[in-house]
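Any chance you could type out a protein's amino acid sequence plus the matching backbone structure tokens because I've never seen that pairing?

——
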Amino acid sequence: MAKTNPGRFFEDYSIGQVLHHAVPRTVTVGERALYHALYPARHALYSSDEFARSCGLPQSPIDDLAAFHVVFGKTVPDVSLNAVANLGYAEGRWLQPVYPGDTLRSETEVIGLKQNSNGKTGVVWVRTRGLNQRDEVVIEYVRWVMVRKSNLDAPAPETVVPDLKKALAPGDLVVPSGLDFSKYDFALAGEPHRWGDYQIGETIDHVDGVTVEEAEHMLATRLWQNTAKVHFDLTFRPDGRLIYGGHVISMARALSFNGLANAQMIVGLNGGAHANPCFAGDTIKAWSEVLDKAETGVPGVGAIRLRLVATKGGEAFALRGPDGKYSPDVLLDLDYWALMPI
């Protein structure tokens, strides 16, 4: 009997299948320090306990994307160990903050399957939930991945493509209990721009860039316990180790501080696409577009919907070519909701 885990292949999935992922992880202030070392992250709510307390929280939470990476990493051995690529996200919600000392685990349900026409791969849709030590759901999201088949003669499953929301409505968003921006300190946060200063359709060039190095990517992938072969094993993809898409997301989010320093908490993920592969040596730059705004009914707190685009040094605000396809310089196209002081 084999003792090692070869990972699941496309023919190993079935609709309704529930996967309980190993291994639970207790997050600490160490995750925060490493996250801020890997990315130029400077949002005040995640940097200062005192700032977080002034906003009604008991202490500074772990960065929303750090919590996402921990939950995501748990799923890799069961969902995407044999993936060709992670294709997209939808219906992501951060339901409550994750604080140092919380223990996170993940579980996933298979909600869609579609074999590709080449008969060698298929797309698997899954809904993942991250739970804390009290069995409270702290984050949930849908993603879909292209996975290899092991047995090319295995029959194709019945095609089931889930009907997913194109975007979360403001009423779907959860504002953390106690959050109050009515006494928000804009000077300490780093920028004066508040919710009312942003207009739908406005675009923001975040100006700065960061060149991705092999060393930092490998540290990040190990930190999040992401064991996907395309990120670790150079013999698996001779053109280079593929940079984990979450690494690109966090880098772009950190770069967006310059112009969106007060978009403090991510609470919704409407959609996302890793448009082109990222490799070590690529220089990531970012720009944003304001897609929507909404009031939340919570003191001083507004919601802002943003498109965050990461490029490998490409021209700002260039997204697609005349053929409608993503520009080859575009690495990431992410649509998310954040909370901002009114």
Notes: The radius of gyration is 20 Å. The longest strand covers residues 103-115.
